[in-house]
Amino acid sequence: MDTILNIKAFLLVAETGSLTAAARQLGVVPSVITKRINRLEDQMRVRLLQRSTRRITLTPDGEMRLPRLRAAVGQLDSIFRESELSSAEIEGHLRIKSPTTIAIVSLGEVLTNFQLAHPKVSIELVMLDRSVNPVEEGFDIAIGALPTSYPGVIDEPLSAYPRVLCAAPAYLARYGEPSHPRDLVQHDCLTFATTGLSWGFESRRGLINIEIKARLSANDSQLLLRAALAGMGIARLAAHIVRPALSSGQLVRILPDYPVPEFWIKALVPRNRAERPAVRSLIEALKAHFALSPTLAS
For 222-249, what is the mean pLDDT? Predict the structure, then answer.
């Protein structure tokens, strides 16, 4: 077990580049991290880290062994986790954050079934259409689709999250339909506030980034959908949100030959809470639910 702790200390230092940051995540003082890494280096008979007064970097031996050590710890953690989940009672309180649309469309059934299966679990679901750091804001699980990462937080991919460009026929009749992403600079655009004013598109020659003019910027996808239906501009929204309007002809898909890069819905979990049986069990339930449900991924 000491060897596993030593390896985990090394992996955290390699990830954070800091003895202090690694110690903070493990709840120990930096000298403990130093001792664990020294013991690991003695066991392996190689120098894994290059220490200087300014920074810590991996040695060539450290670089070479890092992937194998990470994989080994992952396999051991998986074995222990399976054993823990099979023997430990699932109980406790879970505080979860989710974007409003994902919560309404996808979470009701899975959370209800989870609580029916585990009656000693209580859940607080907070709907927020912004990215949050679950460590700083006190969440056990923060679900989101924005490409964010935070120190001490694990990403658990749940489902693909395709997005499309669309506009109302009335808007296109008035202003014309763009034939290339660069044409968007001449149009009114409706954008999600936290994604900024740079829209990316895939093409045969690689990624195209366009700075758009936002007529409306909001952190609520339903508000943007209503604005698009009213003919206010061109919106970039999740495919599952606009699918009914596209099918009915209320909206028209724009630039289908230039797909919007796909997001992934992820569960962000504080590292120090990730092995709680209730957290681990709910993450597995979410993965199974999204794998079987085409609602968001198509």
Answer: 94
